[in-house]
Amino acid sequence: MPPVVHILVLAAGASSRMRGRDKLVQQVLGQPILRRVTETALATGAPVVVTLPPASEARRAALEGCPATLVEVPDAAVGMSRSIVRGLAAVSACDAGPQDGLMILPADMPGFTPAALADLISRFRAEPELVWRGASADGTPGHPAIIPRDLWPDLARIAGDEGGRSVLKRHADRVRLVPLPDRMAVLDLDTPEDWAAFLDHPAPSA
User: Fold this and answer.
1) Omega before 47 cis (within 30°)?
2) Which site in 9, 65, 145, 170 is 20 to 30 Å from 50, CA atoms measured?
C-alpha cells in the first residue's frame, strides 16, 4: 500500500493583524478562503484535518458539509505550534502507516490548486524519506511542506509560534524544494492591505 499523505489545514490563528476582521472567512471568488483551501486539499483525495480555535462558529459554518475532520485547539493563543501538535495527534490516532506523511497547509494562502498539491503528494509517495516543500519560481522556500512519519516526533515537540521551521532546518539535507506556479507557495493574506492587493488580482479558479 503506498504511503498516505494526511493534509493538516492550519486554521486556529487569531487573525490578529486584520484589525477586528477574521481573515479566514473573507471571500475569495465567492467562497470563504478557509473553505476554498479545505476543498482544494480534499480534491486531492487525501484525508484532511482542519484545526480551529475555540468559539469558532463562523469558521465552522464556512466548513459546513466539508468531509474534513475538525480539531479544536483550546490553547491556540499560545501559537501556531499548538495547532500543529494537536492536529498531528489527531492524525497519529488514525492508524497512520510507518511511511505516511503530513502536509502542513496554511489556511490563509489562496493560490493553491489540487494539481499542485497532488504533485507534491506524488513526489512524496515516490520518495517518502524526503521532506517535500513548495517554493516560489525563484526558489524561495514556502508552503506547503510534507513531513515524513519518522520526523513526526520532532514536530510534536515544537513550541510557541513556530510552524515547524526548526524541524526543517535540522533536517535540511532531506528537504527538496519544488517550484510551484506563480506565487502560490509564498502568497499569504494577513492584513487588510494584503487582502485589498489580492482582490485586485485574485487567484485563478482551482
Assistant:
1) no
2) 170
Domains detected in the chain: 5-200 (3.90.550.10)
Q: Which three cell numbers stand for residue 61?
A: 459554518
Give, for 132, the enclosing helix (H) or strand (E). strand 131-135
Residue of 115, 82, 118 lying closest to 103 (CA atoms):
118
State phi, psi for 104 to the nearest 5 degrees.
-95, 115
Task: Name every residue whose Cβ is closer than 8 Å to that of residue 8 and which is 6 or more positions away in sequence.
Answer: 48, 49, 50, 51, 84, 87, 88, 91, 102, 103, 104, 105
pLDDT tens, the chain, 206 aa long: 789 999 999 999 866 666 657 889 999 888 999 999 999 999 999 999 999 999 899 999 999 999 999 999 999 989 899 999 999 999 999 878 899 999 999 999 999 999 999 999 999 999 999 999 999 999 999 999 999 999 999 999 999 888 899 999 999 999 999 999 988 999 988 787 887 888 776 655 44
Question: What letter would DSSP give residue 77?
Answer: G
